[in-house]
């Protein structure tokens, strides 16, 4: 099912498998994500989503199979991949005892940006988000999440991985968050996102649903709703997850 | 790569500097501990109440008595002819030490070259008793030497508690090196374990591991600022010891600072190791306390002499890094010896650092598990 895209896909996963002892967390998973696409990676808790993401971002080694990100092999070229991906975890991950600018300076430095680049991008970021430079711990959760997302994009990665980025955030802020996601995708960044909110799944270009380590269905939200004869992704998700 | 590490170190410094309360505590700790240990926990005793039992006073017994009253340590509360009359004083706690001369003390000294005294010490507090006993022996030894006409004097002492003391009998001198070890352990092992496990607990470590930052850079970034803090602590402890308690410093300051850094590295490795195997700050803190602070205080020879421990604990004390550091620090500070006498202990610390660092870096590899 290799797609004939104009550009080489941002993520290519083939027969990716991860075992923990006799338990197969991710079982022969294959999919592609096109450059600039917003890809929703859905699944119930324990379906293997987190294990799959960990293999893609180099926190876990695959048992077998392969994955390429921006044309680089996760098993062989992880050090190069690290500079080209961004990651935002479900747990809030900026330092609360540092200011907004200090957090930006840290990640900018880690990703090898020059002082001039950091200064330019951080002032732009403050302006876009409408933030002032204060301790991150004093920001409301929604702002923190938006800031964390912007910081994950600071080094202009080819692919950004978002693991349940909007957990615990109010609907209005979630909406704003998705606007940031679209803006990033429009700039050519590939967005790989997991979520528990099925309304968010509808915003994705394409989604996959994972059940018990397998991807059971993959396509655009519209295609999938037609294929499974349901009205919402929520309905589809419940049906597939329950079938297992 | 260099700026990557630098950015991380700057971030660590900011964490430390921002948390003013913790920083203040960490910086003040050596001062407070030196004062507390110096005053409260010192086992030297002043104004020991002494009773002299002198059945036949002569020039020798009077000379020895006057030697006891010469310093500020003893004050004679009674001079009696038989030991029986001081028994009630002992029972009522009005007496600490009784010194009994044998009859015709001077004559014995002159003829046989030996005479006997008996020291009865109130041993309800063993530590104080030991101290008082050593003071009394020091006075008697002093007198012995004064009678240096080649004649020996045998001294009988009851009760028989054995404990070696430094020549000046100032216990604070012995405590300071141990204190430095304790402060370094606390700052290095405990704070590193807490700060690293905090990253784990809050999920920021995951972000760092996904970034181009390498695991060794994360460890170095964590460890370096605390090494600086440990350095400041050693200086504070030494200054406080010198200015408040006039603890002598006979050896090389540079050597002591070098050894302190070496000891800090051992502790830092333990801190990293603890953080690698734990998942929460709280557990990391408790384990660091149990694994480093307690042994450093109790099994290092700082408070309790290793020689008076049971054999089993003596063997265990060999793996306590503080034990070796305290030998080194006491050697440098009190005896003024150099590396030629301390290279074995230094080597032990160096080997411990290497082994623990290797294990810590290996354990700290959540990546590619």
Oligomer: heterodimer
Radius of gyration of chain B: 26 Å
Largest beta sheet of chain A, briefly? 6 strands, mixed
What letter string, H or E per element, gives the SSE order of chain A? EEEHEEHEHHHEHEHEEHH
Approximate shape of chain A? globular
Instruction: Give the spatial strand order of the biggest sheet of chain B.
Output: 2-1-3-4
Largest interface by residue count? A-B, 29 and 27 residues
Structural class assignment of chain A: alpha/beta
Write down how many β-strands of chain B occur, each being a DSSP E stretch of 2 or more residues.
4
Number of helical elements of chain A: 9
N- to C-terminal separation of chain A? Answer: 24 Å
Mean pLDDT of chain B: 80
Number of strands of chain A: 10
Low-confidence stretches of chain B: 155-169
Instruction: Give the neighbour order of strands across the main sheet of chain A.
Output: 6-7-8-3-9-10
For the largest beta-sheet of chain B, the strand count, sense and barrel status come to: 4 strands, mixed
* Rounded mean pLDDT score of chain A: 90
